[in-house]
Amino acid sequence: MEINQHISRAISEVFDQVLKQLQDLDEHRLNQQPADGGWSIGQTVEHILRSSSGIPDQKVQVFNRAYDEQVPALKQLFLDLNSKYQSDSFFLPKQEHYEINDLKNRIIANKTKLIVDIKDKDLTLLCMDREFPQLGYLTRFEWLMGICTHTQRHVYQIERIRKEVVA
Hints:
InterPro entries: DinB-like, DinB/YfiT-like. This is DinB family protein. The chain is mainly α. Helices cover about 55% and strands about 0% of the residues. The chain has a single domain (about 1-165), classed as Four Helix Bundle (Hemerythrin (Met), subunit A) (Up-down Bundle).
C-alpha cells in the first residue's frame, strides 16, 4: 500500500496547488480571457475538473510489466510546456463564466473522491476500460500519475494567466 500513500500525497499536493492559485482571485479575474485568446482561469480549472473525475478501472487485469512503466512518458507528454495538444471534446470547458467558491468546492470534492477511491485498491492492475492515446492501456497508478502531471501542467498555465490578469 506504499504506492497508494505515495499517489494520495501527490494528488493532494497538486490539487492544493490549484486551490492556492484560486485563493485571492475575484470572479472578474477568474473569468477574464487572456490576451492570447486562450482559456480563462475558470475554464482551465473546469478542464482540470472534467479530466480528473476518476479513472477507467471497472475492468482490470493482471499483466506482465512494471506498474509505473508509462510514468516517464506521461510526464514527458504533460510537462513539456512548449507542446500544445487538442483536448478530447468531453474534457473541454462547457461554460464561460464560473464562480470561485463552486470551483473550489468541486476541486476539493475531486481530490477527496480520488483519494478515497484508491485507498484500498491494487494500483498495479491494468485498466481495460479505455486506452490512453498513444500509450495504450495504463495501470491505475499510471492513470493517477497522468491526472497529477496533467493537473500540474495546468497549474503552470494558471500561473501564466494570473500574471496577465492580476497584474
